[in-house]
Design a protein that fits this description.
Elements lengths: L6 E3 L24 E8 L2 E2 L2 E5 L10 H5 L2 E3 L2 E5 L5 E4 L1 H14 L7 H14 L11 E10 L12 E10 L7 E5 L17 H16 L4 E3 L11 E2 L2 E7 L2 E5 L10 H12 L4 E4 L3 H9 L3 E8 L3 E10 L2 E4 L7 H14 L10 E3 L1
Parallel strand pairs: 1-4, 10-11, 10-17, 14-15
Antiparallel strand pairs: 2-3, 2-4, 2-9, 5-8, 6-7, 6-8, 7-19, 8-9, 12-13, 13-14, 13-16, 16-17, 17-18
Helix pairs in contact: 2-3
Bound molecules: pyridoxal-5'-phosphate.
Pyridoxal-5'-phosphate (PLP) binds next to strand 13, helix 5 and strand 16.
Length: 355
């Protein structure tokens, strides 16, 4: 267990917990009582403070708004039936956050400090975690440049913030995706691997075009040739073809290194299912759909865990995926991951961190 250091706590005067309607809990619109704020000035991280959730100050010339030094993470905490609070692989988020920071010329937060900030905040708002099945606490750490300066150069000062949102079962209704062959999410040498705010802003327009055609998400392809599939929205893509779990290799720096995907791979390996991380062409995908060798296809990400894909749009065709009920592997993954996260099953992988 890490020591609690340098985190000042100023409790909120009142709690908004009693106002929460647990039956109708929209994702990302309800916020817990506290947030953590820590600033980087004079070349070092200053004392972190946990205080009442509320607005943050903003100078009109705030660097992040103009020049985009802004990164984030997303992870979840669950409460077990016994009342323990478990974080799911927070050290992986800490590491990815550090990698995003480096790519964006932002100061790195030592991984232990990142995890301790998350842990302490979650501990303070632990009564916001509902232990009923399906509920969890979504945790959003982020950092942005705060120099009040009009000029393109890395900012000297930054603000690191964490807030949390109670969330219900992110209904994993099957999603329809469209293979995108014109617009690009990330190009080699760019920032696709980093969780950088701008990646999401730039994907909204192509995603909107897809939505107008009836698709929830796009399935991005490589920027150079548009012939290899990469990932979808905020989820990595995974396929089961001929009993092999296949996912696009993250060696290319255009794919986000998802923690859910990594966990699915580790589960599959522990179950003796062969896994291949490699390039996957559109042609291979289409062939596997048409000849019936593709039995499962899903997105993997923290918000939904596993989002089964029902239909794939490719040019003028809409291809139907196999029925969700029969997807043995996906269903087993969902059940096992939920059990591990909620402490119903022993965490043989050492994925959870008790708060
Ligand atoms: C966050 C994210 C994912 C999923 O990562 P997890 O760590 O599993 O939540 C996948 N792709 C993109 C683009 C993302 O932003």
């Amino acid at each position: 267990m890490i020591k609690t250091t340098n985190i000042k706590v100023t409790p909120a005067q009142t709690s908004k917990l009693s106002q929460v309607d647990w039956e109708k809990l929209p994702f990302g619109r309800v916020f817990s009582d506290h947030m953590l704020v820590m600033e980087y000035t004079d070349g070092e991280w200053q004392e972190a403070e946990i205080k009442e959730f509320g607005d943050l100050p903003m100078h009109p010339a705030e660097s992040a708004i103009h020049y985009g030094q802004s990164i984030f993470e997303g992870l979840k905490a669950n409460k077990t039936a016994e009342g323990d609070i478990l974080l799911f692989r927070p050290e992986m988020n800490a590491r990815r956050f550090a990698e995003s920071s480096k790519r964006m010329c932002m100061p790195v937060i030592p991984e232990e400090m990142f995890v301790e900030c998350v842990r302490k905040l979650v501990e303070i708002d632990s009564n916001w975690i509902n232990s009923e099945p399906g509920f969890s606490l979504y945790i959003r750490p982020f950092m942005y440049a705060i120099d009040p300066y009009v000029g393109i150069r890395p900012s000297d000062s930054y603000r690191f913030v964490i807030f949390t949102c109670p969330v219900g079962a992110y209904y994993s209704e099957p999603v329809n995706v469209k293979i995108e062959e014109f617009y690009t999410r990330a190009a080699a040498g760019g920032v696709g691997r980093a969780k950088v705010a701008g990646n999401y802003g730039s994907s909204m327009f192509p995603a909107k075009i897809g939505q107008e055609l009836g698709f929830h998400q796009l399935l991005w392809t490589d920027a150079k040739t548009h012939t290899f599939i990469e990932e979808s929205g905020t989820m990595n893509i995974m396929l089961m073809i001929d009993g092999v779990l296949i996912t696009p290799s993250e060696e290319s720096d255009t794919i986000l290194r998802g923690i859910t995907k990594r966990s699915v791979i580790e589960l599959a390996e522990s179950w003796g299912i062969p896994v291949e991380e490699r390039k996957v062409s559109i042609a291979e995908l289409i062939t596997a759909i048409k000849d019936g060798s593709l039995t499962e296809v899903f997105g993997a990400g923290t918000a939904a865990t596993i989002a089964p894909i029902a239909k794939i749009g490719y040019r003028d065709e809409i291809l139907e995926m196999p029925p969700v009920e029969g997807r043995e592997f996906s269903n087993r993954v969902v059940e096992t991951m939920n059990n591990i996260k909620s402490g119903k099953e022993p965490d043989v992988f050492g994925w959870t961190l008790k708060v």
